[in-house]
Structure formats: C-alpha cells, structure tokens
Amino acid sequence: MALIILAYQILPRIGGAERYVYELACALQERGEELVVIATDCEGAADFDSRSPLTIKRIPAKSKWEAVQALAAAGTAYAEGNNSLNQPVTAIIAGKWWPAGLAGWLVRRRTGLPYVVIAHDCETVLVGTNILKWPGQHLVIRGAAGGAAVSHYAASNLQRRGLPEERIALVYGGVNPRAFAVDEQDVAELRTRFSDRGQPILLTVARLVHSKGHSQVIAALPQVLEQVGEVKYVIVGSGPDETHLQQLVEQEGLAKFVTFCGEVTDSELGALYHAADLFIMPSRDMNGKCREGLGLAYLEAGLCGLPAIGSRNGGIPDAIVDGETGLLVNPEDPAQIADAIIRLISDEALARRLGQNARRRVLDDFTWERVAERFQDALRRWELTAGC
C-alpha cells in the first residue's frame, strides 16, 4: 500500500519540522513503503529534489491558505489514482496540523482517505489571536485517524485538543548516523581552529531566537571563566537575534570566548559536534511561543558522544535523561547553567560517561529507522496500511 505525505515545507528549507518530515519519509521508503511527498516550492528545491531518493511533487503557494488548497488538490489527485504510484493509497500523513493537516482533512472529505497528523510541540493547542484557527484546529485534530507525537509533551497536547489516547502514538524523532560520519583530520582542524590552547568547547546548534537560550549561556560564561579558566563558546545558526547576541557578547567583554559560525554544511556540523566537549541549549518557555517539542540537536549531539545541557521544557526530558545522558537546568537561572557547565568540564569521567550513554541511547532508540518502525507500528494499529 502507498502513502501520501503532505508538507507545507520540507528540505532544503531549513527547520526542525522540515527536516523531520523529510527524514521520516526517507526512512519509511527505505523500510519498504511506497510514497510520494507533496510540498510547497522553495529556492533550491529543483536541485535538491534531483538528488533526493524520494518522489517529491512541488506546488507553488504564496501563503498558507494557498498551500491548503494546492496541497488538497494534489493530494486528491493522487488519492484518486492520478499518479505514478503502483499501489492504492491507504493514508495521508500531514507534516503538521496547519496547513498540511487541513489539506488532509479536505482530501478525506473528497475521497474518504484517512489522514494522520504529526505533532511536534504545542502547535496543536497554540492558536494565537486568529479566531479562525481554533475551529480549524478542532476539526483537523479530532478528525485525524491518528496523531504521531515526537515526545510525551507533544502527545499530551494532542490529548488536550481532544484526540483519544488510543489514536496517539509516541514515535519520537531521530538522527541519521550516516550523515554524521566524519573525517578525523577535519575534526582535529576544527578543534585547533576554535581551541588554540586546548580550551573546552561549548557548542550550541540552533536558530538564533530568544527561546533557544543563547543569551542565558552568555550570561553564565563569566562564572564559568572565573572557576575553570578559558572556554570557547561556538554558536552555529542564524536568525533574528544574531545582532542582539553579538552586541551582548561585546558588552560583556566576551568576544574572545564566543564565535558565531552562522550556517554550516552538514559535514562541517558533524565535525563540529565531534570537536566539541559538550552541547548546550537551555531552551526557554516563552509566553505565547511554542516550546521545544523534542530537540533533534540534542540527539545529534548524543550520536556524536556529547553530553548535553538542556532544560525541563517541553519535550526536552525525552531527549536528555537527566544525570544519565546530560543535565537539565532551569533556563532562567544563569548560575545554575554555569554550575552544570563547570561540573561537566571539571569532571571528565562524568562527561565521558554521559556522552557514551547518550550515543548508545540514540543508536538504540533514536535513529530514523527506529522512528519509521514505530510509525509503521502505529499505522498497523490504526489499520491504515497493509504493506508494512
């Protein structure tokens, strides 16, 4: 049986949800599912799609409302057999409830084909000031044949919106071990570049937005420097907070200890993870904003043997087991963040043990193959596929 995956955006558009849907589709296909991905067009898509193992149909859309109609039209055509798929379609997978989930609901109305919604964080209950979103969300979530949640936090939000527990599956998120195979020489060169005198390297990989907690790490650095000596804080990513963070670093006199790398290639990212001593992203619970649904970066760091420092926020406790694969802190307390950094830098045996535990846990439970396996188990449970 075949699947249709609807996504407002996927790679090469940068973002956690965009990568999630793409990697899940690849893993499902590798496990024998025939599928097609329908997504909106974006810059660089043609070149990216030509190198992808997936069949990706791109549609033009200038807004999310246009995307709803375009995704629904394309999904309906595939559901009715106007496609190159060799098997009948049994279900639609919506990358998020909006706009892909609403498109899935429209396809179900037109064809009777059931749909599943992926829940990433609190987007299934956070409706903002748009009063039209509440009834739309109510319609989409309760009309889904199933909800695939990336964490216990995301699963609880599906329940809050009215999806019964038996129609919710915890599938988590994953990493691709092949993508993080590195050349040891590249790792050594990066280590020398950022740590010219062997200083410990702290690494954050995230969009530069207030909720990721970069400013809290910067606020913690003076205490760290005072107690353990020089460290290097390497920040990977871009975003609207970049100028503010750079100004903050300058104001605090920390320029020699902090490096902004911007966006990096996948191979450079893997080498950076391996070159670092610990990963840190104390994500914050910002009022009116989505929390951290799971945090794929914590899993990427774990795969590379890094202990991680995160916060008790959203789905992060699913990604970091406190005291076993990393440490959880209060993101609003720079002193507590500093204490966690100092503890891992000062106790090499502890840092090594946590990193080894993190790598073992990721390889056992958080590869995309394992995510796809759990996803297929859920489809079977909901009787949406006969081909797994």
Descriptive key words:
388 residues, Rossmann fold, 6-stranded parallel beta sheet, 15 helices
Note down, in words, how this protein is organized.
This protein folds into two domains: 2-174 and 367-381, Glycogen Phosphorylase B (Rossmann fold); 177-365, Rossmann fold, CATH 3.40.50.2000. It contains 15 helices and 13 strands. It is elongated. It is α/β, with parallel strands linked by helices and 388 residues long. Strand 2, helix 2 and strand 3 (56-59) form a beta-alpha-beta unit. The chain is 45% helix and 16% strand. Strands 3-2-1-4-5-6-7 form a seven-stranded parallel beta sheet, sandwiched between helices. Strands 10-9-8-11-12-13 form a six-stranded parallel beta sheet, sandwiched between helices.
Order of helices and strands: EHEHEHEHEHEHEHEHEHEHEHEHEHHH
CATH topology of the largest domain: Rossmann fold
Shape: elongated
CATH class of the largest domain: Alpha Beta
Count the DSSP helices.
Answer: 15
Task: Give the strand line-up of the largest sheet.
Answer: 3-2-1-4-5-6-7
Measured as a percent range, the helix fraction is 40-55%
Structural class based on helices, strands and sheet pairing: alpha/beta
Total strand count, please? Answer: 13
Average pLDDT value?
A: 94
Rounded to an integer, what's the Rg over CA atoms?
Answer: 21 Å
Count of individual domains:
2
Q: Could you tell me how far the N terminus lies from the C terminus, measured between alpha carbons in angstroms?
A: 8 Å
Biggest sheet architecture: 7 strands, parallel
CATH architecture of the largest domain: 3-Layer(aba) Sandwich
CATH homologous superfamily assignment of the largest domain:
Glycogen Phosphorylase B
